[in-house]
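Hi all, posting the design record for the shared folder.

TITLE: backbone redesign
STEP: 1 of 1
STRUCTURE INPUT:
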């Protein structure tokens, strides 16, 4: 057996990339595979690289947390494979946008909703204190008026659109897409102890302004106030929502939303993430949001 293992190590002509798509900070890699093929043929990538984030009751808000400890696994340090924009959802957005006679979701007038947060209130506060509290904060915002629109109060949606849990994660849903296209602003919030989630890149597909809580690292290319808006408390959330809903700031809201959509489509599709992980940089339609939006691969 030892002789067979040594022979296999010497004859494997390719590198194997093992990917941990888990949401926690534990390292799940194939140590037994390293014993078979040798370290030089093995690289390890992990999606969730945050640690130490938790709900702080005294602040009524989660701590930011930090990074997992970097270490050598296989032939190099741990690679980060971030969340990508889901191809199945992007295809539904494309189909809906084209069916309405537009070229991108940025052209759609959003009059039905001002703010949406896609999370149902859950009885599991150890997971969702933040998400539950965002729902409460938005309900208090509902009905607010502005001098420029005194007869058009703020319209809010909180809850689920489409399916929840594994079905929602694994199947694109038209109801979810339609509801996002109605909202001027989509608020996304992470689970209390996790850093990073699909909801961010999903929401960015919609062309709405995305307001999100702070994460240990923003997706590559994103800047607070330029392509996304970050809130660090519920007072901060309310202030920023009222600012960007004010008709006087409509052009700024649209500019930030547009930049967020362009970066997400131009650099964060599934092929970009895999290319960057394997080759060191994305290679397909890089920085071309329209070309990527018009692509309908299901990878």
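Okay, here is what came back for every position:
SEQUENCE:
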């Amino acid at each position: 057996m030892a002789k067979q293992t040594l022979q296999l190590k010497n004859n494997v002509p390719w590198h194997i990339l093992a990917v941990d798509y888990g949401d926690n900070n534990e390292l799940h890699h194939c140590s037994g595979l390293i014993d078979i093929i040798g370290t030089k043929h093995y690289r390890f990538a992990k999606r969730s690289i945050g640690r130490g984030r938790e709900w702080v009751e005294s602040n009524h808000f989660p701590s930011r947390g930090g990074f997992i400890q970097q270490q050598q696994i296989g032939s190099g340090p741990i690679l980060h494979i971030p969340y990508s924009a889901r191809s199945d959802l992007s295809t539904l957005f494309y189909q809906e946008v084209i069916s309405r006679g537009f070229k991108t979701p940025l052209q759609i007038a959003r009059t039905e909703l001002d703010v949406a947060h896609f999370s149902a209130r859950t009885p599991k506060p150890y997971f969702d204190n933040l998400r539950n509290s965002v729902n409460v904060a938005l309900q208090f915002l509902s009905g607010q008026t502005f001098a420029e629109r005194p007869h058009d109060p703020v319209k809010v949606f909180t809850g689920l659109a489409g399916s929840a849990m594994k079905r929602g994660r694994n199947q694109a849903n038209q109801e979810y897409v339609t509801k996002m296209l109605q909202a001027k602003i989509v608020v996304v919030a992470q689970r209390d102890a996790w850093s990073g989630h699909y909801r961010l890149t999903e929401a960015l597909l919609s062309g709405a302004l995305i307001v999100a809580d702070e994460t240990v690292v923003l997706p590559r290319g994103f800047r607070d106030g330029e392509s996304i808006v970050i809130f660090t408390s519920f007072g901060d959330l309310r202030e920023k929502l009222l600012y960007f809903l004010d008709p006087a700031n409509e052009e700024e809201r649209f500019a930030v939303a547009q930049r967020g959509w362009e970066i997400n489509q131009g650099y964060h599709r599934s092929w970009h993430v895999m290319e960057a992980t394997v080759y060191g940089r994305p290679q397909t339609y890089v920085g071309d949001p329209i070309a990527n939006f018009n692509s309908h691969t299901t990878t």
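COMMENT: Confidence is low (pLDDT under 50) at residues 1-8.
Let me know if anyone wants the other runs.
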